[in-house]
Specification:
The complex is a heterodimer of chains A (768) and B (141). Chain A is an all-alpha fold. Chain A is built from 33 helices and two strands. Chain A has a two-stranded antiparallel ribbon. In chain A, a hairpin with a 4-residue loop joins strand 1 and strand 2. Chain B has one domain. The chains are: A mainly alpha (768), B mainly alpha (141).
Chain lengths: 768, 141
């Protein structure tokens, strides 16, 4: 499974090359990877999906912290992995044609494949920490994909909004996961899932749950974090179809479903998830009917679907979880198809709004047909799989142990408007009066049609074969979410009962609402006023506030005068170190032992001191530079005398480079004159002496106070046998503490880029 | 910065290859004797800076062929990748892996992922110093 996850990243690295060599069919070539992954996952259908086995594999990552690359393939992971790789195949092929000739098409492939790999990692992870890492990777790839058209300002703002919301939630999630790991005594899902009693009765249960819920809600666009998802539609359409409908936004739902056996079933769980989910569902579909932009309608109806899923997981009964998994599958299929159709409309006619479309069915009969099939599933109409899911949803809501009345009311109201959305998507562009479009429409090419055709057909086939779908695919997923096998059987026809009547009623009312669509939009204009105080406004305000705060803080602390920077840094050092020294003053013994003082040590110290005096008192720049150089070389000498040759060499080289850099900037400096009056110079001298005194005290106390045994012994003993090296300094750098060094060279590289940017932008400013 | 010092230019042409070879020597012996990627990188960067002093920026850029910014990327890439073999050998990320070889000229030689990591450090250090120095020098001209 490690290979299944890593292959996405590897192929992503090759994608630009493939695209360059094969610009026309690159999409199809790269789509072979998701296809292969799909086949690989499908080969587990018998063992995992049908027989209910759970595959576990584990690789070491950071064993000392209990972090592993542990993977788990059970029913739930398998369902998600099949959706991710299967829909991924159509998306990559589609992107090859949709953005044909785009300057950055290679980059799109890279990001899409990286996203796919991260998403697979997320749903396959058995370790909370690696799950979190993949979770954040999906946020980052989503950010880059939403901002794909980076020349457009709205795209950049939407990308940033999505990133901020999901990453803020990610921080909450991380806290929650770490707390969960501490309380449960393990970061492995396989162990946590069996600890339900201990976890739900723990004092930290409520904070853990709420933190994880915030993470899941931001990712899955639940109220009040729903606003970023419609804005994310700035991404190219295949991206919207893949990330912001079929897969990534379901990550939050996945996490809730995954943790259901460990954390679910309490009143808090049902209240938070059930009510928030139900409200999101209603709000989403209401806003969908109010919108006219093709992708906006679809985005808001995705919000509705995510709300439905959250609500069902919140209810948490066997029936509700069955409904959740069925609904998840149904939604991924029809919404993926409909988004791809939206892309086709945009690609073939140039229209992005439902009001600009109409009568396209004659020119694009195949697209119209399959859009209609997918819309039927969206509307929940027999015999599509969406119907099965909707019936189960009604049944689960009516049967809910808590809040059944509220949930049922919201569910029926949402279903009515859901039918309206289906009608808007399935009828408006294709039939009725022909509306003049920017481009004259043609039937879409195979690469664009493949996805909608297959996904819509699957919506139909799975509906007809509902019992088989359960026994091969959904059953194991439901078992995984429930924590134990479920008796409920899924079938297309349940007889004439209350859910069926509710479906029929919502169908009729929904079509009625479609007939009065324009009227409805006009009648509900008042909600635009509400949007002015909605969560999106709070987001905008807080972003503005943070910008102002940091501008103020930068003015105060980083005003561009180097001496103030130094004063702040040195002042804080004195206060922090000094206060600790003062607090531990009883433990510190200062020992002045000059018995083994050598003559050369006195000489070196004398040279150092006089060089310092020279540097401070001189009135010429050149001699100041020279004395600084003398100080550096003397320090290097000290290193060599106290047997640290590596440090000594480094110091000499750094001094040499400092001289080179000084020579380069020397001409740019103003004339060397004394600008500060005497009292300021006295203040600086006082500060400098205080720093010196603090550091001296610190060194003296460190030399005579031992709290811990030194680690040097270990390094000296282990260096040659364990790390094959005799130079301990180097062994520490490249072996014992590699990760530290890696961090340092990243900082070094960043510093170089920072300097480069500074010099370049200065130069460009001057030019313009 | 077209220095006219004949002495500098003449010695520079001789010193440059010597310094570069010396830096590689420092890099390779670093695991056992004083040296290592950081020091070696500084030596190499200083050598290129020397070249910059007796010629100009375009010819120095030509000398090093590769854009120092690319060196940053390659260095970070190599250093990070050197952690991967450990994972496939069933150890933690960044656990060093060694092979002992008997090579025709060098005799008993040990090769390991820490060397790869050190080469990464070497590249990043050269890249950092040269990015800064060259862009400063360019701004000067």
């Amino acid at each position: 499974m490690l290979l299944a996850v890593l292959s996405g990243f590897l192929v992503a690295a090759l994608a630009p090359l493939v695209h360059r060599l094969q610009p026309r069919f690159g999409g199809w070539l790269l789509a072979l990877l998701p296809a292969a992954l799909f086949i690989w996952f499908a080969s587990h259908l018998r063992a995992v999906g049908h027989d209910g086995e759970v595959l576990l594999q584990s690789w070491q990552w950071i064993p000392s912290l209990g972090i592993h690359l542990a993977f788990r393939l059970d029913g739930l992971s398998l369902l998600f992995a099949l959706l991710i790789s299967g829909i991924g195949f159509f998306i990559v092929a589609y992107a090859g044609r949709y953005l044909e000739g785009h300057r950055d098409q290679g980059r799109l492939y890279v990001l899409l494949l990286c996203f796919m790999a991260s998403m697979l990692g997320l749903v396959l992870s058995d370790n909370l920490i690696s799950l979190f890492v993949f979770w954040e990777l999906t946020s980052i790839t989503s950010y880059l994909l939403v901002g794909f058209n980076h020349a457009s300002k709205p795209a950049r703002l939407s990308a940033r909004q999505g990133l901020f919301v999901t990453v803020a939630g990610g921080l909450a999630l991380m806290t929650g996961l770490v707390m969960l790991g501490m309380v449960g005594g393990s970061y492995e899902l396989s162990e946590l899932l069996t600890e339900r009693e201990a976890l739900t009765s723990h004092a930290l249960y409520a904070p853990i749950l709420l933190l994880i819920v915030v993470g899941a809600f931001t990712k899955s666009a639940q109220f009040p974090f729903h606003f970023w998802l419609p804005n994310a539609m700035a991404a190219p359409t295949p991206v919207s179809a893949y990330l912001h409908s079929a897969t990534m936004v379901k990550a939050g739902v996945y996490l809730l479903a995954r943790l259901q056996p460990a954390l679910g079933g309490t009143e808090l769980w049902t209240a938070v998830l059930g009510l928030a989910g139900a409200f999101t569902m209603f709000l989403g579909v209401f806003l969908a009917v109010r919108s006219t932009g093709i992708k906006r309608v679809l985005a808001y109806s995705t919000v509705m679907a995510l709300g439905t899923l959250t609500m069902l997981i919140g209810i948490g009964t066997e029936l509700a979880l069955t409904a959740a998994m069925a609904f998840l599958l149904a939604h991924s299929l029809y919404k993926g198809a409909l988004f791809l159709v939206a892309g086709i409309i945009d690609h073939e006619t140039g229209s992005k709004d439902f009001l600009d479309t109409g009568g396209l069915g004659k020119a694009m009969p195949v697209t119209a047909l399959f859009a209609g099939v997918a819309a039927l599933s969206l509307g929940g109409i027999i015999p599509l799989f969406g119907f099965v899911a909707k019936e189960l949803m009604f049944e689960a809501v009516l049967d809910a142990p808590l809040f059944s009345g509220i949930l049922a009311t919201l569910a029926v109201a949402s279903a009515v408007m859901g039918v309206t959305v289906a009608a808007i998507v399935g009828l408006k562009p294709w039939y009725g009066q022909r509306v003049q479009t920017k481009k004259s429409p043609h039937e879409a090419p195979p690469a664009l049609l493949a996805g909608p055709v297959v996904l819509a057909t699957l919506s139909l086939l799975l509906g007809l074969a509902a019992p088989q779908t359960q026994s091969w695919l959904l059953g194991a997923a439901i078992t995984a979410v429930n924590g134990a096998p479920v008796e409920k059987s899924i079938s297309l026809w349940h007889g004439i009962n209350l859910p069926l009547m509710l479906s029929a009623a919502s169908l009729a009312l929904g079509l009625l609402l479609y007939a009065g669509w324009a009227l409805f939009r006009r009648g509900t204009r008042f909600v635009d006023l509400l949007a002015k105080i909605g969560p999106e406004q709070i987001y905008e305000r807080s972003i503005d506030g943070i910008t102002r705060l940091s501008a103020w803080q930068t003015r105060m602390l980083q005003n561009g005068y180097l001496r103030y920077y130094l004063m702040i840094i040195l002042g804080s050092t004195i206060v922090l170190v000094g206060s600790q020294l003062f607090a531990f003053r009883d433990h510190i013994t200062l020992l002045f032992d000059f018995s083994d003082l050598r003559l050369y040590e006195v000489v070196v110290a004398g040279v150092l001191a006089s060089a310092v005096l020279m540097a401070v008192l001189t009135s010429s720049r050149l001699s100041a530079v020279a004395s600084l150089g003398a100080i550096g070389f003397t320090v290097a000498l000290v290193y060599v005398l106290f047997s640290a040759p590596d440090l000594g060499i480094t110091q000499v080289l750094i001094e040499t480079l400092t001289v080179i850099l000084l020579v380069l900037v020397l001409f740019r400096l103003p004339r060397f004159i004394k600008l500060s009056p005497t009292h300021l110079r006295l203040r600086d001298a006082g500060l400098a002496l205080a720093v010196g005194a603090t550091m001296t005290l610190l060194m003296l106390s460190v030399n005579n106070t031992y709290y811990f045994p030194s680690i040097s012994e270990y390094h000296i003993a282990e260096s040659a046998p364990a790390a094959y090296g005799r130079n301990i300094v180097n062994v520490i750098l490249v072996d014992f503490r590699t990760l530290d060094t890696l961090g340092e060279i990243f900082v070094l590289a960043l510093a170089a880029i920072g300097v480069l940017a500074m010099i370049r932008f200065r130069a460009e400013d001057k030019d313009t | 910065m077209n220095s006219l010092s004949l002495v500098l230019r003449t010695t520079g042409y001789f010193l440059l290859p010597l310094l570069l070879i010396f830096s590689v020597f420092l890099l390779l012996r670093g695991h056992d004797e004083p040296g290592g990627g950081f020091i070696a990188g500084l030596v190499a960067a200083a050598a290129v800076c020397l070249h910059l002093f007796f010629t100009d920026v375009p010819s120095t850029r030509k000398l090093i062929h590769i854009d120092p910014r690319d060196l940053l990327g390659w260095g970070l890439f190599l250093a990070t990748v050197s952690g991967v073999p450990g994972v496939f050998m069933g150890d933690a990320f960044f656990t060093s892996q060694w092979v002992e070889l008997t090579l025709p000229i060098l005799g008993e030689t040990k090769l390991g992922t820490p060397l790869l990591f050190d080469i990464g450090v070497y590249a990043v250090v050269i890249g950092t110093v040269l990015t800064i120095v060259l862009s400063l020098a360019e701004a000067e001209e």
